[in-house]
Design brief:
The chain is built from 13 helices and 17 strands. By secondary structure, the chain is an alpha/beta fold. It binds S-adenosylmethionine and iron/sulfur cluster.
Length: 428
């Protein structure tokens, strides 16, 4: 989502006559788009800003955008007086006006209000991939997971109208994009604010019908709002990719309640069963937090058992990180850093073994890949399967960049924990 925010900010800058340079040294305006989902992010931002302190005031202007901007607010001007603009993502719709103020010489500009119904819906997005494009369908978040800073940094949930989303999808298809990734903190709670009133499953089905679009992905799903109609929509149209990212966070119902995730382990497993009993196989991935306050050895074991039960294709795992304003900040029974680290390594080791085994099962299969790039040194092309695996492959007439953006059938010949290797298959 941050990458796509940057694409929109760059698009707005270009629209107002700016051009992009390769390094901050060459720039007259330097903007840092920031994340604060885990701690120390703000520290990194201040360290970077510090490196440029000397250059400030000459002909360089600095701005901080995104979640650290929203979280630290005016304090940024105190800690880094050479910063002229502090703007959270909920204020991006006003970003163009802020640029005008910067040009007029204002050196203390803020965009920190979360009180908005607007989405950052710009026709000037500057996409950096010519084949795969992000589309934001919903911004902000109305959940209140006890560990999470997002509701405080990205504001309340705002869905885009279905007309606007569909128009963007059609425009992208006309421009030659074949893959679309729908974005939101919780795409499942998408509610079309226009009279059409589409829910997420309907939007998915309609996007998949846009002529020229061969793949549609989406992220992220909150399990509570992941309804059976979404699986039905996916089953009905293979343009909707064979992958669901369904963050569970913990395998313990007790910890899930403390996290205020609004589902139990059984509720979650019911959704996994829908996917496992669906018409085609779906790759399943998740997010895990270890060391949430009060997580006992037994709770942690429940998470490990869940990994055994679900057999995820991949996961992101994190040590719980206390965040400002969140409910978990004051919860008792903090877990020591070394213990969090121990649990993290156990999760990662277990998952690695699962991935080695699951990926090995793919050997011999023929998969369609969307070609994303080339490893020159390995003599391989980089492909991605519909189920979101990286499948690097050799091709007899590899020349220049000619394969990038195309779709090819590849036979899997080898596997590792994180990717597959293959060769283009002759399809008869
Ligand atoms: N909205 C999505 C959801 O509900 O699953 C994900 C949002 S967040 C950007 C991505 C992941 O970061 C979460 O699923 C969670 O695992 C992790 N995360 C968020 N806050 C965290 C924290 N305070 N400490 C550790 N991990 C965190
Ligand atoms: Fe954070 Fe929970 Fe919202 Fe996801 S659903 S962004 S984890 S508060």
């Amino acid at each position: 989502m941050n990458v796509h925010d940057s694409e929109k900010v760059i698009g707005t800058l270009r629209q107002q006559g700016y051009s992009q340079v390769d390094t901050p040294d060459d720039a007259g305006l330097v903007l840092y788009n920031t994340c604060s989902i885990r701690d120390k992010a703000e520290q990194k931002v201040f360290n970077r800003l510090q490196n440029f302190k000397k250059a400030a005031g000459k002909d360089k202007i600095f701005g901080v955008l995104g979640c650290v901007a929203q979280q630290e607010g005016e304090k940024i001007f105190d800690r880094a007086p050479h910063v002229s603009l502090v703007c959270g993502s909920a204020s991006y719709p006003k970003f163009g006006d802020m640029l005008v103020q910067l040009e007029a010489g204002n050196r203390h500009i803020t965009g920190l209000s979360l009180d908005t119904e607007e989405t950052f819906d710009t026709p000037f997005t500057s996409r950096d991939n010519p084949h795969r494009a992000y589309i934001t369908i919903i911004e902000g978040c109305d959940k209140s997971c006890a560990y999470c800073v997002v509701p405080f940094t990205r504001g309340p949930e705002r869905s885009r109208t279905s007309e606007s989303v569909m128009a963007e999808a059609r425009r992208l298809a006309a421009d030659g994009y074949t893959e679309i990734q729908l974005l939101g903190q919780n795409v499942n709670s998408y509610r079309d604010p226009s009279p059409a009133g589409w829910d997420f499953a309907t939007l998915l089905a309609r996007i998949a019908e846009v002529s020229g679009i061969r793949r549609v992905r989406y992220t992220t799903s909150h399990p509570r709002d992941f309804v059976k109609a979404i699986v039905d929509a996916m089953d009905a149209n293979p343009v909707l990719c064979d992958h669901v990212h369904l963050p569970v966070q913990s395998g313990s119902t007790r910890v899930l309640a403390a996290m205020d995730r609004l589902y139990t382990r059984d509720d979650y497993m019911r959704r996994i069963d829908w996917l496992k009993n669906a018409k085609r196989p779906y790759a399943l991935t998740t997010d895990i937090i270890v060391g949430f306050p009060g997580e006992t050895e037994q709770d942690f074991q429940a998470t490990l058992d869940l990994l055994d039960e679900v057999q995820y294709d991949s996961l992101f795992s994190f040590k719980y990180s206390p965040r400002p304003n969140t409910a978990a900040l004051d919860m008792p029974d903090r877990i020591a850093e070394e213990e969090k680290q121990r649990r993290l390594l156990i999760v990662q080791e277990k998952q690695r073994a699962i991935q080695i085994r699951r990926n090995a099962e793919m050997i011999g299969q023929i998969r369609e890949v969307h070609v994303e790039g080339r490893h020159q040194s390995l003599g391989q092309w980089i492909g991605r399967t519909s189920d979101n695996r990286t499948l690097n492959f050799t091709h007899p007439s590899a020349n220049g960049d000619t394969l990038i953006g195309t779709y090819l059938s590849v036979r899997v010949t080898r596997s590792g924990p994180n990717s597959l290797v293959g060769e283009t298959a002759t399809v008869v």
